[in-house]
Structure formats: structure tokens, C-alpha cells
């Protein structure tokens, strides 16, 4: 078993997350996406649902990722709060 230093694994994990977020909309909607230099399409396609990207604050890599991937960060975060409140009421 190879032990990977934590900083390396965090960097690699971030790159993988960014790549997954890049191709996800195409894959979900049935369009073609290039994954590992291979063109891939899933069928049937569907409407792209909201994707939650979370992390440990706004100054982290996840914070930067959130800002890159949200269409309208303020509106999306407001909607997320509404959705979480609805989930809380359903769970009660």
C-alpha cells in the first residue's frame, strides 16, 4: 500500500472534483462529455438537478469551487436555505 502525503491527496481530490463537476451537466442531460480522453454519453438524458458543493468555509478550495460552479451564488444559496428548511420540516 502506497502512503500518499495528505497535501498531495487533497490536491488530487480537488482536481478530480473539478473534473467531475465539469462533465456532470453533460452526462446528466445526455450530451457527450470527454472523460479521460474518451467521449461518453449516457441515455436517456434528464434535466440537470441542483448540485450542492460544500466545504469548510469560503477561503478553502471548496469555497473557490462553490464560486466557480454556482450560476448565481447569492440566489442559489438563498434557495439552498429554503430547501434545507423544507427537508427539516419533512424530517420532523
Topology (elements, then pairings):
Layout: H1 6-29, E1 33-35, E2 38-40, H2 61-69, H3 73-91
Antiparallel strand pairs: 1-2
Description:
This protein has one domain. A hairpin with a 2-residue loop joins strand 1 (33-35) and strand 2 (38-40). It has a two-stranded antiparallel ribbon. It contains 3 helices and 2 strands. Helices cover 57% and strands 7% of the residues. The protein is mainly alpha-helical and 92 residues long. The model has no long low-confidence stretch (mean pLDDT 78). The radius of gyration is 16 Å and the shape is globular. The protein starts with 5 loop residues before the first helix and ends with a helix. The protein has helices at residues 6-29, 61-69, 73-91, and strands spanning 33-35, 38-40.
Question: Brief overview, please?
Answer:
With 92 residues, this protein is mostly helical. It contains 3 helices and 2 strands. The termini are far apart.
Count of runs of 4 or more consecutive helical residues: 3
Report mean pLDDT, rounded to a whole number: 78
What's the domain count? Answer: 1
Radius of gyration based on Cα positions: 16 Å
Q: Tell me about the biggest sheet?
A: 2 strands, antiparallel
The quaternary structure here is single chain
Low-confidence stretches: none
> SS-based structural class?
mainly alpha
N/C terminus separation: 45 Å
Shape: globular
| Sequence of strands across the biggest β-sheet | 1-2
